[in-house]
Fold this protein.
Amino acid sequence: MKDLKEKLFYDHTNVYQAIDEGELESINEYAKGYMSFMTKAKTEREATAEGVAMAQKEGFVPYTMGMPLEVGGKYYYNNRGKALYLFIIGSENIENGIRISAAHVDSPRLDLKQVPLYEESEMGFFKTHYYGGIKKYQWTTIPLALHGVIYKKDGERVDVTIGEDDEDPVFYINDLLPHLGKDQMKKPLAEAFTGEDLNILIGSEPVKGETKDSVKLHVMMLLNEKYGITEADFLSAELTAVPAFKPRYVGFDRSLIAAYGHDDKVCAYPALTALFENKSPKKTLMTILADKEEIGSEGNTGMKCQVFTDIMEEIAKALGGNYHVVKENSKCLSADVNAAFDPNFAEVYERKNSSYINHGIVMTKFTGARGKSGSSDASAEYVSFVRRIFDEHGVIWQTGELGKVDQGGGGTVAAYIAQKNIDTVDLGVAVISMHAPIEVISKADLYMAHKAFSAFNK
Ligand code: MN
Ligand code: MN
């Protein structure tokens, strides 16, 4: 009966129960590279810059539209410093299609408003507008760092990173002390802390002898001294507050990693390393690091931007292939995270169809909300295709749906790639506390992500 059950029933596997010593070592080694990447790449701009630096080391060269391409050539297209398209031209006929791994590198955060600076009761603050889906109360009373760019009146660019170095100051959002929280604590979570309450504390020392707006003046004097900016320069700036934490191992066994922005750099990094690993592929390979996924993939750096198909079309043309045939035969892994089953919140998950920490990379056939609304829902044919690749290459994987039916939902870039006539399915790492300032993932799942993209590329 036991053998029969083993033969006939389906169950997924804990990676640690299935691997040997060698692979355990690979898991631990791979995590180090990822943590170092995560230390440097908190925003989409930084992830793009880091991706470019890594690609250049691997011999990739900048691509410009219309440029001739050669077999074995490695190229990257840097879209406005916020999104990256990397590709290697394979030896096979281009009409056999391109293998695409598409992740995103933007993460939920607090953007500064365009007129952010003010003083209230002798304290200096920045007004913010949150980006992506957040639970607002989670962003209070934690150390924050400021990242981004400022363009001065004359167009000169100033890069800002403050709060990451141990010597740097950090920034902070106040919350009410419990002693005076009687009314606040009666409010629902979504109302206890509103978007307009997310004001960042940035200073308190006034200019001596001056009484009105003297803290604000002091802050502006310091900013002018350090960056040469005036208050008007915030109008043409993109500054964002992110948690000032470095990635850390979690647990006595160090099996988990806590970091800001696992969603979706935990897929972006493996999509990069899998691409770099393949030195002379048969198929043409592409890895995409997209921006704006957290706000609907909009804009000219999001996945909906035509630059994606423009590049596909140019590749087809340069290699003498028919663009429509290239798309028709291309295949994509939409590399994005899923919600790991959390026993502390078991009521929102459906146990049989949730993804589990340490059970390997998660394939998500469909996302969306309610009756699969907004999902591209991968075909059984394509799931079968990917399933066989993973089984052939020893990739430990599981399937995962985002929570119980009608509990909520979400989307990824999958739908925007599938609509171009490209087979697409979501594949990514299971995340604990997704979209929190600090999210948690498993090292074993991270490594399986690399293995999965690598197998797909082969
Ligand atoms: Mn995501
Ligand atoms: Mn997300």
